[in-house]
Amino acid sequence: MICTSTLDFRDALPGRGRLAGLDVGTRTIGVALCDAGWTIASPAETIMRAKFSVDAAKLRALVAAQLVKGLVIGLPLNLDGSDSPRTQSVRAFARNVEPFGLPILLWDERWSTQAVTRTLLDADASRARRAELVDKLAAAYILQGAIDAMI
Q1: What is the pLDDT of residue 78?
Q2: Is residue 37 part of a domain?
Q3: Residue range 107-123: average pLDDT?
Q4: Whose CA is closest to 81, among 114, 104, 105, 109?
Q5: Of the candidates 48, 20, 49, which has an alpha carbon nearest to the alpha carbon of residue 107?
Q6: Name one GO molecular function term (predicted).
Q7: How far is CA 55 from the centre of its chain?
Q8: Type and span of the H or E element at 75
Q9: Number of structural domains the chain divides into
Q10: CATH label of the domain that carries residue 138
Q11: What is the rounded distance in angstroms from the CA atom of residue 46 to the CA atom of residue 23?
């Protein structure tokens, strides 16, 4: 089930449990996880994109290993809230992972990468370090926003 409302998503979840946040890009998928009590989201890993079947296998393994109960996928809307070509791609990705059998929340992530990049710049992280961290930190930012809205 793909939701755009936190209430619908929360109702679709089988109780509390770990959630995974995904920042789906063209070359990478940033992954974050939260604790079972939905207190804090933490960056987990960055998956280098390949064919969807390879990406799906990596995500399935992570979901199984971490006992994930739901997915929060960042939806890159235009600044005016309308869909963009990237938005269409992320919606298609969500439809493709729907067979995992987990509730999916599409969460507005317009400012996630910019906010994380700004934080890394303030921390004086090198360009290489920023590139290494930005996707999984953006996923954590997305997931934290969603869990804050649900509690």
Answers
A1: 81
A2: no
A3: 69
A4: 109
A5: 20
A6: nuclease activity
A7: 14
A8: strand 68-75
A9: 1
A10: 3.30.420.140
A11: 9
